[in-house]
Design a protein that fits this description.
This protein is an all-alpha fold. The protein has helices spanning 2-25, 41-50, 54-57, 76-88, 94-101, 105-116, 131-140, 151-154, 173-184, 192-198, 203-214. The radius of gyration is 27 Å and the shape is globular.
Length: 217
Amino acid sequence: MKLFAHFLLAALVGVAANASFAADEHPAAPAAAAAKPKPDLAKGEAAFTAKACASCHNADGNSAIAANPKLAEQHPEYILKQLEEFKSGKRKNAIMSGMAATLTDDEMRDIAWFVASKKEKLGFAKEKDLVALGEKIYRGGIADRQVPACAGCHSPNGAGIPAQYPRLAGQHAEYVASELTQFRDGVRLNSIQMTGVAAKLNDREIKAVADYIAGLR
């Protein structure tokens, strides 16, 4: 009986040792990373006001200056990405880089969700002689130059795809044309896809598609 108890004790010690070894080899998974705080729209509005964002984009995100983008109803993930890239230097703009440099991560997140929650005031096309060309490029691309249809990523009505492609519908034509030109000329470098597309467009085509986008609903 004593001999049996001795073997039983040895077996139990071995099991414990093996369990300890296994725990060392496969440690418990670390606790899940703390969830990121949810956007605070009230704080976003306060930061948007305090940082004078409204001076260029208006209090409701509907810029009255055609050179400055409308931010209302834009996908907040896209706005946040742009702010982060202005701050990091990946996207160049003397004014926005300076503004973003003063923002904390929380402020950028809150501002993005606040201004995106505002209703966009849609625009309209002005260049009647170019609307047909703009529509053709936006909806069908330019096959012989392998220019893809804008609608493929930004959707037929310009709504875009949340967290992937920005909303374009109703955006100022002047702003869109300026950004397309910067992509084409290698000034704006934070989207390989857009650099490739814009590189194949001439000034007239850029103006046409930008004007068509302004009138999208």
